[in-house]
Amino acid sequence: MAQSLRVGIAGLGTVGASVVRLLDQQKDILAARCGRAIVVTAVAARDRTRDRGIDLGGLQWYDDPVALADAPDIDVFVELIGGENGPAKKAVETALRAGKSVVTANKALIAHHGEALAHLAEERQVALSFEASVAGGIPVIKTVKEGLAGNRISRISGILNGTCNYILTRMEKESLSFKKCLKQAQVLGYAEADPTFDIDGYDTAHKLTILAALAFGVDVNIGAVYVEGIRSIDAFDIRMAKKLGYRIKLLGVAERSESGIEQRVHPTMVPDDSPIARVMGVTNAVNIQADAVGELTLAGPGAGGDATASSVIADLADIARGLVSPPFGAPAASLGRSIQEPMQVHEGGYYVRLTVADQPGAAASIVTSFADLGISLESIIQNRSEDAAQLDPAGRSGAPVPVVVITYATTEQAIRSAVDKAIAEGYVVEKPQVIRIERE
Amino acid sequence: MAQSLRVGIAGLGTVGASVVRLLDQQKDILAARCGRAIVVTAVAARDRTRDRGIDLGGLQWYDDPVALADAPDIDVFVELIGGENGPAKKAVETALRAGKSVVTANKALIAHHGEALAHLAEERQVALSFEASVAGGIPVIKTVKEGLAGNRISRISGILNGTCNYILTRMEKESLSFKKCLKQAQVLGYAEADPTFDIDGYDTAHKLTILAALAFGVDVNIGAVYVEGIRSIDAFDIRMAKKLGYRIKLLGVAERSESGIEQRVHPTMVPDDSPIARVMGVTNAVNIQADAVGELTLAGPGAGGDATASSVIADLADIARGLVSPPFGAPAASLGRSIQEPMQVHEGGYYVRLTVADQPGAAASIVTSFADLGISLESIIQNRSEDAAQLDPAGRSGAPVPVVVITYATTEQAIRSAVDKAIAEGYVVEKPQVIRIERE
Q: What positions does the domain ACT occupy (chains A, B) (predicted)?
């Protein structure tokens, strides 16, 4: 049997501890599958005394991840520190420069510096693998890079953030407010103390742009992603979506258009009988549309120590088997510029909720505003008796009532203009809610 | 750029023609992703004159696939002839012996001779790849072999035959009989003129045993699979399943038990809100349960020229990148014997339909038969007024009526004994129907 693959791991949080434990637990299976052993020989973390539930005896300990990255007696550096800059970036660069392969779960690092790091890895002919950076335990990067190698992908979309999906699921199932669900998610450890990164869509955007680069052969460009989070989603919207046969999900969508690549993250109404609508709780799912295969859907755990470790170990196994390919499939130098399709030209159906003073003429004014922009309405719902009562228990006339408009396919530009026009008419008394609909 | 990978294709049916067309169509993407071109240089097929909608000009033509397999100027032999023996087997053996990598979509060949062929491939250090043999365009073999390399898999199951799923879907949606749906599937090209292989479960069994070998590191052993098809499924069963909150699917299930590996293919009642129940029409889906990742589900096209070609090309791309690993993940010599868990010890819930003469005491006799075997019943349904009328429009007393029994978890052995006992009581007038329930 060939020499062992010597692994150094920087960062011993939940994922790091799982990697150490699983590599030991599955060592026989892995050795059989890879033709050589995969052995952790060194680790770097701040606190030497913390009990992580794993045996670190016999491992070399580094306080500085950069020193570990440069250590001559490791073959692969596993970066589980996190953060787009700082020690994570420095350590990864150091390892690549030293001719070591790198495995990372760091989506921020790859989304911001993926291309530069890919150049570095390709120069040294080592691997830079990041399966764990997107959709936790789902092997979606391997699927896109290798499993669909012969496909021209036209669209890749999915539920890529378990925190948001958990919150939206609970809001629906238990008719709770966004705030209440967020608090419960924090108590249960599904959301961070500062949840901004997850609930405002940035986490999804990072993952999406990595997938887009792989799927379309373009540069990773986090700046090209339109991002909207789920903070504005109201219990009323969730209820209304249900009534209309939809469910609200935070989707990341990257698709080819005629003029470029559209990348967007926003709350989306999807038909409640679609596969993506059925993905509940912290589960992630990715849907891929491509010319040869047609449509493929992968669903599984988007987070969690062991699930994420599963992806880290898959990357290590590929490296142990000697597989080194360009990090983004095609060589970094060949990646095209991603042309950002401005959100204004996005086409689709829309759900628009306008809260108006309950006066004669209010609904008519809204309908006119949309008609003037040439937008065809599928329905307009003014459910005063029940839904308005939720906003104003007295149900008195003149109190604000929500008017919901569902449109046929139109453009973002037209919707924005129609909403502005409706506001100018003077009836709208609250910030309008606009949710995009994906019917396919 | 490295030398082109020269491919010889034997068999130019739907899949073969798609492979030729797609390799040409995606040649730029593939060259970028693999670092070298993949070029079809020779083909073997019987009829030189047939119009296949592809340009075969400039390709070397062989009438004999074995001669192509032995040709010195190809690097990879793609076998798309089909059949477990005959020219397919001979050609694949010839190619491997000549030190050429082989890609095949032939499930029967791999299910019957996979291990011997793997030994041959490993001896010559060439690839033997068969992604296209299971679940069409879904990259499930890559997922199990590579994506979940660090997992101990406990269960792999799925809808692996599009023909059966199409028939069951139509039976449910349109309340049609099995015979009528089969005929329509044949007209639409979803079922063969001789549909035995699909509808009696053998096709699913072939695919399942390949997955089991990969997932559990055991030999491919088609003889170890318990097989039951969908011929006996009645419109009544479909209706009753729906009433009870289930859907009937032909599932292949391979799972570790304490004493061995259970491999079984049979119609199964699954909860109608489970992900697998939602897979309709010709779509395939595979669910994997494993220690690190938890649960993973892949859904996509199980057949079709382009979708299957997508998998063939993914295998070619891996070979072009220089990836050669043992065909079943671990080396063939290390594969354990698969210990066939006899179906008698299978445990689970059951749906049993017994058609009895409508006489006092019939239902009581059935209940007693099950109670005597210690089987707990979740429900017993004797729906005379409506369902019996379907069997006997006159609805007269004494006419046969179906009695449906749903059990809690018990063993196959107990069910078989209870059914025999009920028959012995003399009330049962038709062949009993037994359908296993998977509640997880």
A: 351-440
Do B401 and B371 fall into the same domain? yes
Chain A interface mutation, best of B218, B293, B298, B313, highest count of A Cβ atoms under 10 Å: B293
Nearest residue to A343 (alpha-carbon basis) of A227, A232, A248: A227
Long-range CB contacts (< 8 A, 24+ apart) of A221-225? A221/A338, A221/A340, A222/A111, A222/A112, A223/A340, A224/A261, A224/A263, A224/A338, A224/A340, A225/A263, A225/A264, A225/A265
One-character DSSP codes across A14-65: HHHHHHHHHHHHTHHHHHHHHSS-EEEEEEE-S-SS---SS--TT-EEES-H
pLDDT by residue (tens digit) across B134-175? 999 999 999 999 999 999 999 999 999 999 999 999 999 999
Residue matched to tokens 């490993």:
B122
**CA quadruple B351, B352, B355, B360: dihedral sign:** negative
Last residue of a domain, one of A82, A114, A133: A133
A-chain CB neighbours of B137 within 8 Å are: 292-294, 296
Touching check for B307 and chain A: CB below 8 Å? yes
Same domain, A189 and A286: yes
Same-domain pairing of B153 and B273:
yes
CB B204 within 8 A of CB B164: yes
The closest of B303, B338, B171 to B239, measured between CA atoms, is B171
User: How many independent structural domains does chain A possess?
Assistant: 3
Q: Is the ipTM of this complex over 0.90?
A: yes
Residues contacting residue A107 through CB under 8 Å, at least 6 positions apart: A130, A133, A134, A203, A206, A207, A210
Look at residues A415, A386, A388 and name the one whose alpha carbon lies nearest to residue A399: A388
Q: Respond yes or no: is residue A207 known to be catalytic.
A: yes
Q: Is the Cβ pair B150, A297 closer than 8 Å?
A: no
Quote the CA–CA distance of B61 and B46 in Å, as a whole number.
Answer: 10
Range of A261's domain? 143-301
Query: Tell me: the pLDDT tens digits for A301-348?
Result: 999 999 999 999 999 999 999 999 999 999 999 998 887 888 889 999
From the list B278, B314, B326, the residue facing A150 with the nearest CB is B314
Q: What percent of chain B shows pLDDT beyond 90?
A: 84
Residue among A35, A146, A300 minimizing CB distance to B295:
A300
Q: Do A294 and B307 touch (CB under 8 A)?
A: yes
Would an 8 Å CB–CB cutoff place A187 in contact with chain B? Answer: no
What's B156's domain CATH number?
Answer: 3.30.360.10
CATH number at B99 reads 3.40.50.720
